[in-house]
UniProtKB/TrEMBL annotation:
GO molecular function: ATP binding; ATP hydrolysis activity
Official protein name in the record: ATPase AAA-type core domain-containing protein
One Gene Ontology cellular component annotation held by this UniProt entry: mitochondrion
Cited Pfam families: AAA_2, Ank
Protein species of origin: Manduca sexta (Tobacco hawkmoth)
């Protein structure tokens, strides 16, 4: 509702209740208490276009990048001990009536909700409060992908996302300089010096622009079992895709009576 005084009163009451429960005198996390169905107050404020409430919650210590746990009325009802119809009703009444309560919003941040609500004020407050414009939801989408075309919210998200990407690229380049790929690979693979150096040199050429989309970087690792083919592919995928678990897919070819082969295509 955007009632700042009521927000402060409820936060103070939650702090007092926490103090009575644990007697530790700590109020950490109170602002980020979750609704039984998975969302936080900051997400509600952003979804309902309440930038003043967003600013106040951030000032009180709300974390801007917490992710939504609401995966639709049916999925959320069971863990919360509710009937799906009750979950559906509470989502509409206690979160936002203009958003589809049957849909999954799993992994959404407050910034995703601000983008969908086309709330430039809430998006600006979140970004100034440290929200990550490159954060992705459970479906792999950024907040920018939910913003309306040709809107101030989209322009704001685009501008900040570009800054984050440039800063991340600079940090990654500095990390690669201080900790070369060869050194990373040798921490996990014993021996195989020639293979490691060959792979690292090819990756470095790609990173420096000596590659194009018509000639993708592809490796074929051959050899007997246990010499490090799979581990080399795993570590290379981890390096190039920043620990994304979906970057490495293993197909066991033993069922087809084919000599063990591990391939990795490196796509930027």
């Amino acid at each position: 509702m955007g009632n700042i005084q009521e927000i402060r009163r409820q936060i103070d009451a939650a702090k007092a209740n926490q103090d009575r429960r644990n007697r530790k005198g700590s109020d950490e996390g109170v602002v980020d208490y979750r609704h039984p169905l998975g969302w936080t107050a900051l997400m509600v404020a952003a979804a309902n276009d309440q930038p003043d409430a967003v600013e106040e919650l951030l000032r009180l210590g709300a974390k801007p990048d917490l992710q939504e746990k609401y995966a639709g009325a049916t999925a959320a009802a069971g863990p919360a001990g509710m009937h799906p119809l009750e979950a559906l009703q509470r989502r509409e009444e206690e979160f936002c009536s203009s958003m589809n309560a049957r849909a999954s919003f799993l992994g959404w941040t407050a910034l995703h909700y601000a983008a969908l609500a086309d709330s430039a004020g809430a998006a600006r407050a979140l970004l100034e409060g440290g929200a990550d414009p490159t954060a992705r939801d459970h479906a792999g989408r950024r907040a920018l992908q939910y913003a309306r075309d040709a809107s101030p919210t989209r322009d704001l998200l685009t501008q900040h996302a570009r800054r984050w990407e440039e800063a991340a690229a600079a940090a990654a380049a500095e990390e690669r300089r201080r900790f070369p790929l060869e050194q990373r690979l040798r921490r996990h693979i014993v021996g195989q010096r020639a293979a490691i150096e060959t792979v690292a040199a090819a990756v470095r050429r790609k990173e420096n622009g000596w590659a194009d989309d018509d000639h993708p970087l592809v490796f074929l690792f051959l050899g007997s079992s246990g010499i490090g083919k799979t581990e080399l592919a795993k570590q290379l995928a981890r390096y190039m895709h920043r620990d994304d678990p979906a970057a490495f897919i293993r197909l066991d070819m033993s069922e087809y009576q084919v000599t063990s082969v591990c391939t990795l295509q490196c796509v930027s």
